[in-house]
């Protein structure tokens, strides 16, 4: 095949930038770059003894007060909070200087041989109390009512580096969920409406990895510039023709990402069959800059789901996301190709990345549709109030609605929600 003309406006690249590397070359480069991974130590030293005590009175009856975002002592009402990890671990700067893969201790690889159930000796009375860290990070001693907390970073994925505390109260979440369902009421399944009890909402901390990185990506492809357009009569039809110049394109862009959020649970990351679409991703973003150092008292009264994905497993997904960020970055330089651009090859070079494990707060209302077993969710971002969900829709009602102008758009929106199931 003949070589296409190079776009005259394109800066010529030196030859070594040329064709994308072969698989062997990439493997060799990856091996050369493999280095011991430095780590950021994020254990909360002040909680070493397993008790989270009120700094004023020493009580262990502590929980989050969502309306203020602070921990509150239920005994003396003193309020305080843990340090923001952004400052505490220097996550706010130095992204450009990152080299290789930097992993915070709470994001370390999960060890298969570590039990999820942690047993404590109660500091109050000496009884043995167990916490199943799959769903909870605290337990109350059934003898003396002391609250016991998981403070150390057991390598089972249950203890992250940081927590973004709930900010929306349960009452606020109920209002959002009621509004969300109310706007779609017209099309909702009758049974759903009868069984709708938003008070059953529950708060859950979901595991995420929050990533800083700097990268450079390159793209190779073709762009077309239209030179002529004309119409010819063929029998009864008018046929339109185009003429275009085709150019060989190459773009390279370097960029920095700050707090890219990726799911740390494989159950959420891959869309399960009996589960409606990945709704949680539609309520992003979270203000991850306000995440604070681990203190399991933030989880009292909430559920939590432990992380089951390691950094290594998420790297290909990070590269995909970075490539798409890079593509949108070069978009501005492609205006003249008014007949479009087709990328044929791309290459990413992640210069450095930093991974921090974090719990993010979500209010969830779930409903299982009995007719088809589908699990529907309405999820509320417990920081911003952003709400998204799917509700079981009555199809005859949708059809009827599409016949009446004015409600059509709402009907389409509801239908799209179900179609993504
Ligand atoms: Zn107190
Ligand atoms: Zn006890």
What does this structure look like?
- The protein has 421 residues and is an alpha+beta fold.
- It has one domain.
- It contains eight helices and 17 strands.
- The strands form four sheets. Strands 1, 5, 10, 11, 12, 13, 14, 15, 16 and 17 form a ten-stranded mixed beta sheet that branches. The chain has a three-stranded antiparallel beta sheet with strand order 2-3-4, with no helix packed on it.
- A hairpin with a 6-residue loop joins strand 8 and strand 9.
- The longest helix is centred in the C-terminal third of the chain and has 20 residues, at 311-330.
- It starts with 22 loop residues before the first helix and ends with a helix.
- Mean pLDDT is 82; it is low at 11-17, 32-36, 270-277 and 405-421.
- One zinc ion binds at residues 122, 124-125, 127, 141, 143-144, 146.
Main beta sheet: 10 strands, mixed
Radius of gyration: 27 Å
Mean pLDDT rating? 82
* Share in β-strands: 25-35%
- Secondary-structure-based class equals alpha+beta
Summary tags:
421 residues; alpha+beta; 10-stranded mixed beta sheet; 3-stranded antiparallel beta sheet; 17 strands; globular; disordered C terminus; binds zinc ion
Itemize the secondary structure elements and their pairings.
Layout: H1 23-33, E1 39-40, E2 62-65, E3 70-73, E4 79-80, H2 85-88, E5 100-104, E6 117-121, E7 128-132, E8 138-140, E9 147-149, E10 162-163, H3 170-183, H4 190-195, E11 202-234, E12 237-263, H5 266-269, E13 292-293, E14 303-304, H6 311-330, E15 341-368, E16 375-381, E17 387-389, H7 395-401, H8 408-419
Parallel strand pairs: 1-5, 5-15, 10-15, 11-14
Antiparallel strand pairs: 2-3, 3-4, 6-7, 8-9, 10-13, 11-12, 11-15, 15-16, 16-17
One zinc ion binds next to loops.
């Amino acid at each position: 095949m003949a070589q296409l003309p190079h776009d005259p406006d394109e800066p010529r690249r030196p030859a070594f930038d040329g064709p994308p590397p072969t698989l062997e070359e990439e493997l060799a480069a990856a091996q050369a770059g493999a280095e011991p991974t430095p780590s950021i130590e994020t254990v909360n030293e002040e909680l070493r003894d397993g008790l989270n005590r009120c700094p004023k009175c020493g009580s262990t009856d502590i929980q989050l007060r969502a309306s203020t975002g602070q921990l509150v002592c239920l005994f003396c009402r003193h309020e305080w909070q843990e340090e923001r990890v952004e400052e505490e671990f220097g996550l706010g700067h130095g992204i450009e200087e990152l080299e290789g893969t930097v992993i915070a201790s709470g994001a370390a690889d999960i060890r298969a041989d570590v039990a999820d159930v942690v047993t404590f000796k109660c500091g109050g009375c000496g009884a043995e109390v167990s916490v199943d860290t799959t769903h909870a990070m605290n337990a109350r001693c059934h003898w003396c009512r002391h609250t016991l907390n998981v403070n150390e970073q057991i390598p089972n994925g249950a203890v992250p580096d940081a927590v973004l505390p709930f900010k929306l109260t349960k009452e606020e979440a109920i209002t959002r969920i009621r509004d969300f369902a109310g706007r779609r009421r017209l099309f909702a399944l009758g049974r759903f409406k009868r069984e709708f009890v938003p008070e059953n909402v529950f708060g859950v901390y979901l595991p995420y990895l929050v990533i800083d990185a700097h990268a450079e990506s390159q793209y190779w492809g073709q762009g077309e510039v239209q030179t002529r357009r004309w119409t010819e009569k063929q029998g009864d039809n008018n046929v339109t023709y185009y003429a275009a110049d085709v150019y060989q394109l190459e773009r390279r862009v370097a960029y920095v990402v700050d707090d890219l959020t990726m799911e740390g649970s494989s159950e959420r990351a891959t869309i399960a069959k009996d589960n409606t679409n990945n709704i949680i991703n539609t309520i992003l973003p979270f203000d991850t800059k306000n995440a604070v150092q681990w203190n399991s008292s933030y989880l009292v009264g909430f559920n939590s789901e432990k992380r089951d994905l390691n950094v290594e497993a998420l790297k290909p997904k990070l590269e995909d996301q970075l490539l798409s960020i890079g593509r949108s970055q070069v978009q501005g330089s492609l205006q003249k190709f008014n007949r479009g651009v087709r990328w044929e090859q791309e290459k990413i070079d992640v210069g450095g990345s930093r991974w921090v494990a974090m719990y993010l707060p979500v209010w969830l209302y779930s409903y299982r549709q009995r007719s088809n077993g589908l699990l529907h969710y309405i999820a509320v971002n417990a920081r911003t109030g952003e709400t998204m969900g799917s509700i079981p829709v009555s199809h005859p009602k949708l059809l009827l609605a599409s016949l009446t102008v004015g409600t059509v758009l709402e009907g389409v929106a509801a239908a799209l929600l179900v179609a993504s199931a």
